[in-house]
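Lab notebook: predicted structure, single chain.

Context: the supervisor wants predicted structures on file for every construct in the current expression panel, including those that have not yet been purified. This is the next one on the list. No modifications to the sequence; it matches the entry in the shared construct table.
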Amino acid sequence: MSRSNLRLESLPGGRLARPARNIPAAEPDAKETKNSVKKDAAPKGAGEIRIIGGQWKRTRLPVAQRPGLRPTPDRVRETLFNWLGQDLTGWHCLDAFAGTGALGLEAASRGATAVQLVENDAALVDQLHKLQQRLAATAVRVQRGDGIAALKHAAPGSLHLALLDPPFDSTLFEPALQAAAQAVAEDGYVYLEAPLAWTDEALAPFGLAVHRHLKAGAVHAHLLKR
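Prediction complete. Output recorded below exactly as produced.
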């Protein structure tokens, strides 16, 4: 992906992982220090998150220990669906980088008619299938594959909401935005998570503009409109 026109070459690497730190070796009898080292060395991305609203409110979603997996923070998801309104009845949504499925399942929980979860990691796809069955989520379709290709295959103007949360160290932002802009309806939305704020000037080549923006820690959450 070319980034020359958007000047986003400086995207920070890694979605969750922090740079390795030089931790002094613990003394043999320093139990507390050893525990601290072990805690710091634990892989990021393990644990669980919860669906915030709708019919599956408070349902726990497992977060697998997968490289680069960075679930959308609770605060950001809550704000996003406040922006969108709590009732998504009749909406058609596509979560192009599904991961844990938190964004797409949140949409389905709030009444979306059709939610497509697209994920390339086989282990995460298996987990999403299990979640779909556990929730009896008939509106949700899980697909293993390329999220950008899925957006391109969607009929132009067929989506009410395209969810984009690509790896922060990837070169997927431009093609994802290009494909999403074609797939969403005239009055639809594109949600974008990124390590930097995208301006209207940067989004203009895709025919998109910032409708809402939130910064939470290292995450910039954008709700975009055509």
